[in-house]
Design a protein that fits this description.
This protein is mostly helical and about 80 residues long. It is about 50% helix and about 0% strand. It is globular.
Amino acid sequence: MNHEEIKVQVTTFLTRSLRTKELKEDDNILELGLVHSLFMIQLIMFIEKTFHLELEEEDLDMDNIKTVRDLVVLIERHQPTGAEI
């Protein structure tokens, strides 16, 4: 899965789940007050299931999951090189 496909999947999940019409790539979902602790668990589960990966504890640092861009980078970092999902 390429960068743009990952971005679309993540953005679609976030806008549906957070019931927001627009979410820019660099919007900080934590600072916008859109996220609570239960949602963060749902977000991690979505990432692991959708992209077939297992996140480690160090991946869950808020700096890795605060924007769409951060989430895409995190997912790309865990994808095997050249692998298609």
